[in-house]
Fold this sequence. Notes:
Elements: E1 15-30, E2 36-49, H1 58-70, H2 78-88, E3 93-107, E4 114-128, E5 131-145, H3 147-152, E6 159-170, H4 176-184, E7 189-190, H5 197-209, H6 214-227, E8 231-241, E9 248-256
Antiparallel strand pairs: 1-2, 2-3, 3-4, 4-5, 5-6, 5-7, 6-8, 8-9
Helix pairs in contact: 1-2
Amino acid sequence: MKDIQNQKDTREIDIQKVGIKRLELPLIIQRKNNSDQIVCARARVSVSLPGHYKGTHMSRFVEVLNDWTAKNLLGIDIKGCLKDIIRTLEAQSGELEFKFKYFIEKKSPVTGLAAPMSYECSFRGELDGDDYKFILGTAVPVTTLCPCSKEISENGAHNQRAYVKVNVSYDEHVWLEDLIELIESCASCPVYPLLKREDEKYVTERAWENPKFVEDVLRDAVLKLRAHPLIQEFEVECEAFESIHNHSAWAYQAESR
Length: 257
């Protein structure tokens, strides 16, 4: 049959990334305790396309990813999967990203009751020739309490849920559990999936004793990410969904060693 994708394109525009996104696949994640967690991941995969080709072969992305799913290797060797994709599509570079919800059993701070807590996470690999980079990402919900509100109010202070999003690159392995715990430690207080009255009292008082602007959360996160012995590059942002404003407060920082 006639292959339209391989026909010559006269516009001669090299496309940096072309591919598919929102492909749902099962992904096997190795947990810190050596057990596995199977998640439903949304894949985004792309390759570079030289200007003389009219199009890429979209079905080949799915074929390669399905082969790797059958091998139960997804989530372990993204670099190897990317090599297969680039070779199959005869490209120079490629990118593969999985976004998924990762569950960690979390205990309430006083009563110790456990319940699963979900975190939005991502694995992303970028391969260009022999240059490979892996990026681990997560978005962590936290509580912030406004220092200004606490200072100027006779009673109480406004607080809100915030999200801290972080992407890191490293030479050796960093566990999602450790990265999430690092981020939670930078907030006024962590967020918990299950709270009894004693726990709610603790959370409220902990935030009151530890007021933070988004700038404070960001700076504390930057200091801890800088000090991490394995992390080489990072970007981090904090967005607080303000409880007394119709807008969010936001801060961002990116650094590399």
